[in-house]
Amino acid sequence: MAIDVDNLPPPSPLSAKWRIAGRYALLVVAAVVVVFPIYVAIAVAIQPSYRLLDFPAVLFPSDVDLGVFERAFSQANLGGYLLNSAIVAVVITAGQVVTSILAAYAFAFLRFPAKNLIFVAFLATLMVPTEVTIVANFETIQHLGWLDSYQALTVPFLAFAFGTFLLRQTFLQVPQDLRDAAALDGYGHWGFLFGVAVPLARPMIAALSVFSFLMAWNQYLWPLLVTNDDRFRTVQIGLKALSSANIDQLNLIMAGTIVAAVPIFVLLIAFQRQLVRGLTSGAVKG
Asked: Which of 83, 155, 221, 254 has the most CB atoms lying inside 10 A of its own CB?
């Protein structure tokens, strides 16, 4: 039996208030689940090491030792490791964004034989685990003599199939009329790419940039394999060395972890609007 939506009674104000209250309650629970581990890490870091043996644990510390951050920064040489991670993450992010834009444009707008088949093969690389290719990549880097260098840390990650897929789907949403108008105005491929397609895809490009930076920043296994020189090692390896050398000083380890996470928090806060816009683009049709 068909239901006439126009004749349905409007929701009562009381039920609407309960729905809103339920949503806020759910958001509060989700916020607590996300924020509580961060608060615990900060609470552990700022307490003197002898207070960490108290039982039950102190969630609201009265004795605060902020000097632990300076000690973690100096003992673990986090300055050098953070600089290396920043260089590696920026180079990988820039490389992945550029190669993803160019490849996505080719798959979205250019015509060439077996385009769809090549695109499927391109996407199939996403199903290959990193552990399968890591030995071949290491032998290639070793053959090229790039061990203990920034090339070894960045070159294998300059292309990103998932980024190409995301941007291709965004480029396919560009209206055909806009492409025809750009062609009438004399825009070639480069002009249309940088004058029309890339500006329209800025939210997705920003989201891709944030994801690429986060993945590059959090790499541990590959930098550990291709570097033995501390001048090229990244902050994740530095944190591992700090925890191994100071296993009885949990506050020092937590302080180092917080220092290493600060750039990530700054990045997420600075680009949160672009990240949300990129993730939700295409979810609502007007």
From this structure: 254
